[in-house]
Amino acid sequence: MGFMDKMKETAAKGTEMAKGAAKAGQDKLDEQKTKKKISDLKEELGGVVYAQKTGSGNGSADAEIERLVGEIKEAEDELALIGAESDDDSGDSGETAATESSETAAS
């Protein structure tokens, strides 16, 4: 393999690693946004329940509670998917790193 071929291969590996890092960063950002959304929804839910229990609600608390619980469940499902994608991706990058290490040692 010529010098230029090795340079191209190294550049391709670098690009691949950068894409993986960008994907991991985006997944982490999505995870944090979803956790914040869940927290905000739970806080809103607490306010609705408090208003219902103290009698200061507007009478539609049950419908509002159902809506909020549904949104929380959806966000938690989304969070689980984000976590599953992150786990899948981390296995790939570990495999790539191990392959690169063995290739480097062989050179």
The amount of helix comes to over 70%
Work out the helix count: 2
Strand composition percent: under 5%
**From N to C, what is the helix and strand string?**
HH
Briefly note the structural class of the backbone: mainly alpha
Mean pLDDT: 83
Rg is 24 Å
Principal-axis shape: rod-shaped
- Please identify, by name, the CATH architecture: Orthogonal Bundle
Number of strands: 0
* The CATH C-level class name: Mainly Alpha
Low-confidence stretches: 93-107
Distance between the termini: 11 Å
Biggest sheet, open or closed, and with what strands and sense?
Answer: none
How do the helices and strands line up, and which of them pair or pack?
Elements: H1 3-54, H2 61-106
Helix pairs in contact: 1-2
List keywords for this structure.
disordered C terminus; Helix Hairpins; 2 helices; 0% strand; 107 residues; rod-shaped; mainly alpha
Q: Could you explain how this protein is built, in words?
A:
This protein has 107 residues and is mainly alpha-helical. It has a single domain (25-106), classed as Helix Hairpins (Orthogonal Bundle). Helices cover 92% and strands 0% of the residues. The chain contains 2 helices and no strands. It starts with a helix and ends with a helix. The relative contact order is 0.11. Mean pLDDT is 83; it is low at 93-107.
